[in-house]
Amino acid sequence: MFQRDIVEYLGRWHGSRFRKPLLLRGARQCGKTSAVRLFAGGMPGYMEVNLEAPGEKDLFRRGLSARELLSALKLSRGITAATSESILFMDEIQESPDAIGYLRFLAEEIPELAVIASGSLLELYLADMNLEFPVGRLEHAFMYPVSFEEYLRAIGRDDMLEVIDEVPIPSYSIPVIYREFVKYSILGGMPEILRAKLAGAELEDLTTIYSSLMISFLDDVPKYASNRTMAGVIRHCLETAPSETGNRITYAGFGGSSYRSREVGEALRMLEKALLIHLAYASGSVAPPIRENRRKSPKLLFIDSGLLMHLLGAQWENLGIDDLNSAFRGALAEQCIGQSIAAARRTDFPALRFWTRDKRGSSAEVDFLIQHDERVIPIEVKSGATGRLRSIHRFIEDSDQDIAVRFYNGAVEVDTLRTQSGREFRLLNLPHFLAGRLHDYLDWLIG
User: Residue 218: its pLDDT value, please?
Assistant: First the structure.
């Protein structure tokens, strides 16, 4: 079963005394609807409304009160369960401004009713229609491609999950789990791909599905482009984003085009809001809070590692990769770590940062930057000797921090290192597949 993590999240939300209507957000094809059905589909009071269907929209246009709307929905579906035992799921809510308006009234007038709404491209629709979600009256949760641990559950490797739960993980298990992680990384986490693979799909079938997924994303472009010219810019940026993954990008001329900086910047920000790409922004922070510098060129990551590999022309069954850092000049490894960091906090819009130091004669760049409690942690995605991590050494020199992280193909190790000036710090070395457990390992190291 995919999306177990979000199903467990939905269970905690549903059982909370302080529950508000939940807005489930994520890119198309990430399994939002499937996750809600897994959680609530078997409940006797479950009501699903697909707002892409014209007939479903009409009910929300009639000016009914919140309780009249609920009664009409129950009657049309033959629902007799008590309101406190009912769940209303409004799918693709961005298609109905009237339904968005009802979120507030349902929360105020029928607080005992559990309400879930989901949608794609929400920020883009809201800006275009000058609409706002009721501030402070909603909870937000984000969905991403299937994680490595969800993948392991789906293929029945609970034995690997039990070992991953141990902190630190036993060293004997790392090579076996790493090989499975490579398979997952190249296959990716799009639910339709994983379902097909588990059903015995061949490479040709998967190639067709990857292509269909990308076509569906491209087909959405006219929905959030302000005009035909902008649609062309967005389409170009989405088509060329895979080849720029892992790179710091320049807006002007992005992807070998003649488009101007302003046009490309707007297009990429739209794709970011649609959760089809991630833009990691530069920061010079060495202490919390982490401040972004959006005047510097950002780094680009794609929605999913498997879709990325397909679009870059990789034949995943024949790659034979034993170290993610060796694939596409390290872009695959950086993509996988970035995906995991972006998905670490389900209730926040994903935010990726990297560290830069731009001083004449002493520049440095660290792949990612996160905050853990009151610490800012630099993260490198590298193989090779620890002594070559010059940018991390530079970060430690400039900061009061004493912890850094390296993701690589190797064991869990803690090295005590010194910078050129003699500052001592600890380097936490983790195999790539533990990116989703990063904060657990930082707690372990600090504790």
Answer: 94
Domain boundary among 109, 142, 175: 142
311 & 353 share domain:
yes
The neighbouring-strand residues paired with 11 are none
Q: SS3 for 24?
A: strand
Q: How many CB atoms lie within 10 A of CB 139?
A: 15
213 to 144, 196, 287, 313, 374: CA distances (angstroms): 15, 13, 40, 15, 40
Whether residue 122 is found in the same domain as residue 153? no
Q: Please, are residues 133 and 91 in contact by the beta-carbon 8 Å criterion?
A: no
101 and 182 co-located in one domain:
no
Residue 47 three-state SS? strand
Same domain as 42, residue 187: no
Q: Give per-residue pLDDT as tens, 252-282.
A: 999 999 999 999 999 999 899 889 999 999 9
Q: How far is CA 377 from CA 299, 325, 340, 395, 426, in A?
A: 18, 21, 15, 10, 11
Q: What is the DSSP string of 70-113?
A: HHHHHHHHT--S-GGGEEEEEETGGG-HHHHHHHHHHHHH-TTS
Residues 134 and 92 in one domain: yes
State pTM to two decimals. Answer: 0.91
Residue 215 domain boundaries: 149-220+274-446
Of 383 and 217, the structure prediction assigns the larger pLDDT to: 217
Q: Which of 142, 168, 192 is the last residue of a domain?
A: 142
Q: What is the pLDDT of residue 125?
A: 56
Q: Are residues 356 and 392 in the same domain?
A: yes
Q: What percent of the chain lies above the pLDDT cut of 70? A: 94
Q: Identify whether residues 69 and 156 lie together within a single domain.
A: no
**Residue 130 confidence (pLDDT) above 70:** no
Residue 401, CB-side half-sphere exposure with 13 Å CA sphere: 26
For residue 38, the one-letter residue type is L
Confidence at residue 315, expressed as pLDDT on a 0 to 100 scale: 64
Examine the domain organization and report whether 122 and 186 are in the same domain: no
Give the Cα separation of 393 and 398 in Å (integer): 9
